[in-house]
Amino acid sequence: MAKKILIVDDDPEILDYLSELFQDSGYKTVTAINGVEGLEKVRAEQPDLITLDMDMPEKGGTNFYAGLRKDQANRDIPVIVVSGVGPRPPVLTKDVPTISKPIDNAKLMQLVSDMIP
What we know:
CATH class: Alpha Beta
Oligomer: single chain
Low-confidence stretches: none
CATH superfamily: Response regulator
Helix content: 25-40%
Number of strands: 5
Largest sheet: 5 strands, parallel
């Protein structure tokens, strides 16, 4: 069964781009346009991994991540930050990898395969 990746980003072009990239590599994808929708999708879809933009309207990446880690059932889902935002927010632990935009496909896909073999 294909592993499922939740992509949380407010940019429709990034959602499409990452969905296609992951699907071409055999992953199933689910998308959310902000942190509020992202947390709903986590509960409904039970993804194996999450890619997370930090700068979004409504509930941004920092609040999404904090909410995810408070949720006992889903707190251990691995997260990769894919964002153009500057310094690492303090809420993100050092074990959360960060990919800057523009996206390095090879680096991102290596992280994904390392985190959900």
